[in-house]
Model the fold of this input.
Amino acid sequence: MATRTLANGSRRDTTEPSAITARTVSKVFEGKRQRVSALSEVDIDIEAGQFVSLIGPSGCGKSTLLKMIAGLLTPSSGTIAIDGDTVVEPLPQIGVAFQKPTLLRWRNVLDNICLPLDLDGGRPADGETRARELLAMMGLAGFEKHYPKELSGGMEQRVAIARSLITQPSLLLMDEPFGALDEFTREDLNDELLRVWQHEPKTVVFVTHSISEAVFLSDHVVVMSARPGRIHATVPVILPRPRERSLRNAPEFYDTIRHIRAVLDEARLGEAGGEH
Amino acid sequence: MATPVVAPDTGETARPSRSRSSAGTKSAVLAVLIFIVIVTGWQVLATSGAVSPLLLAPPVDVLAALGQMVSDGTLWPHLSATVQETVFGFLLAVAAALVIGSAFAYSPIVRNAVYPYILVSQTFPKVAIAPLIVAIFGYDLAPKVVLAALLAFFPVLTNTMAGLTEVSDDEVNLFRSLRASKWQELRHLRIPNALAFIFPALNSAAVLALIGAIVGEFVASRTGIGYAIQQFTTTGEVAATYAALIVLSIVGLTFYGLLTLTERLVRRNR
Done:
């Protein structure tokens, strides 16, 4: 279950992806003047090894749900479990990538990727080798000694993803990691992410605003509605894997996008107040 | 009235341009030219009789006075006293500011209770209490060290507080998601972050410590550059007064250089 690097430097050979269950999970933010219901009675089951995207309008609570799975927020009611363990704090088998790369500016690229190892008992003998492999997989071989200020936004995010993978997490949680990037860079990073995922199977929960990104990457797209945040529908994406760039031109890719857009519209029109 | 937090050095530097070396040479040539103009102007002004020789000594005489102080050894006890007062005051201020700043960063309750008093004490011109401090601590090293420390303390305090607390939510969440302990968060996130804030404050603190030491010497002292300046002024040794001022500026530049060197060693490649 836990596939984190062990303190003595040994590592499990097989990575078993994690399964996630959420039961009647709600989250209310208590403001000074008002209570905001961010998420209301969400049930979700994510099977081990699935790539699942959360998509929906602003305020639908998709980032809130992701942060609760990560153990960074506590549900107001209900429970979330990863591999049967109730989440009350961040579990060791997760890797998290944020919207901002959040690299430490005083560490070079290699040391940034190795941060999770440094915080978990130090770098094992093959730690830096693995960091270099990940960096190469993200298309940044040779940038080990560069500092974050010398990198572009896309390069920084590649490093951040390599960092989230260094501990061989069985569950990767990504909160709009490519939201700030231009379309071309985003597509490149989608390709690289899928390549890594194919190489090291794991469960991925991916928050995004982009329908095409969600379709390209996912096995299931979870469509959410806002005020309060709920799961409106879970749409399976029946497209063959491995997925290549050429899929972006395929009619069935567009069919799926159209379908999900329709479900999203339905979710938004169903909102109380219907302000759209 | 709070001392504004000095902007942290985030390592953003201009990219070296292709013409950097030639631009550097031009700047150096210009700097030398400015120096020559100032010294020549000074010499002319002092020897032409336009300014009373009781106010301005020609640079040649100043240099001679400086050479005299060095060769007959009268400079060293004064220099050593001022440097000691400044260094001790600086170190005392930095140590206190780092400890108190960290305490404030970690306990908002303590900060909210104590900080207003420190703020009030900062709005007060501390050199005004120099005579009182001399009365309390006597005529030797102690009152100057205390004055130097009092002046140097505040910028380091505010920047330590800012550096330890101004980390982004994302950075904190990253460390939480990696199950970092509070100590690891401090060691790997907050302290490296704070260094970018603290080093610029140390430069201000060194200058302020030197000011504190000199003011202390002015008030009551038997030695030190400040004492020497007073003696030279009262006895009309104008050239020696200027020589002492030049020594002070060399002391200030040396502190600045040492701090820059320390920063390079501590914050490599940043």
Observations:
- The interface with chain A takes residues 10-12, 168, 170-171, 173-180, 184, 188-189, 192-193, 195-196, 267, 269-270 of chain B (CB under 8 Å).
- Residues 10-17 of chain B have pLDDT under 50 and may be disordered.
- The CA atoms of residues 155 and 204 of chain B lie 7 Å apart.
